[in-house]
Amino acid sequence: MTLDLTRLDHLTQDELWDEQAAASYDTPGIGMSSDEVLGPTLDRLVALAGDGRALELAVGTGRVAIPLARRGVPVTGIELSRPMLDQLGRTDGSDAVTAVHGDMATTRVEGEFSLVYLVYNTIANLLTQEAQVRCFRNAAAHLRPGGHFLIELWVPDLRAVSPSAPAQVFAVRDGYLGLDAIDTATQRLMSHHVTFDPGTDGPDRRSARIGFTPHRYIWPSELDLMGELAGFELASRDADWSGAPFTSESRSHVSVYRLR
């Protein structure tokens, strides 16, 4: 079976991350917006930023940027989706974040930063290796010497992929089902997001909304080579924000690169 994962490549970021997606993206106090997740994230970013400024690539609705600014770090964010930027502007505390509309792989902003960061797999939203390398180079262009570029990224479990089962379930929770269809030849995958809404005729009648997001996954070794091409060296790699060791069983990593 051959998967065609290019059918949504023509969609813009405004279409992929539209008003509905932006309005429902934040989950205050729970999930990726919980204190258990954000606490270690912010602690790490504050330590890396030091006395300098931070630049978030693909800032989205400000889930990380706003609380980071509240911790005293001056934050600028680049975001390509206007609906996500609009949602950021409606969020309490957004006035502390300088938001710029643009592409994280090419857009330059004024000033010098001690930290550039990408969280929650967003470098994989760039769908070619060339664009991902440009992102590294763009990060390097914003950093002062010795500055850091941090990337949070998942590691796909390709051991569970086969021609007879080319899709993986990555999330099952009340009202939501997430599936990844993976093409290992191109390192491309399409995430399918199925959201169930209670029907108007009672709890047994439900409607479903299906959204899609395309990605290109990157192996850690490939990520390191991208860093080398942009003048970085790997400073650390952990399995999560708390600093757990990264192993062959890890399903994610937080990698920090230092600009030479």
Commentary on this structure:
The protein has 260 residues and is of the alpha/beta class. It has two domains: 13-156 and 217-259, Rossmann fold; 158-215. It has seven helices and eleven strands. It has helices spanning 13-16, 19-25, 35-49, 65-70, 82-89, 129-142, 220-229; strands at residues 54-57, 75-79, 97-101, 113-118, 143-154, 167-173, 176-183, 188-199, 202-216, 232-238, 252-259. The strands form two sheets. A seven-stranded mixed β-sheet has the order 3-2-1-4-5-11-10, sandwiched between helices. A four-stranded antiparallel β-sheet has the order 6-7-8-9, with no helix packed on it. A hairpin with a 2-residue loop joins strand 6 and strand 7. The longest helix has 15 residues, at 35-49. It starts with 12 loop residues before the first helix and ends with a strand.
Q: Could you say how many structural domains there are in total?
A: 2
What proportion strand? Answer: 25-35%
What is the residue-averaged pLDDT? 88
Shape: globular
Distance between the termini: 45 Å
CATH class of the largest domain reads Alpha Beta
CATH-level-4 superfamily name of the largest domain: Vaccinia Virus protein VP39
Known CATH architecture of the largest domain: 3-Layer(aba) Sandwich
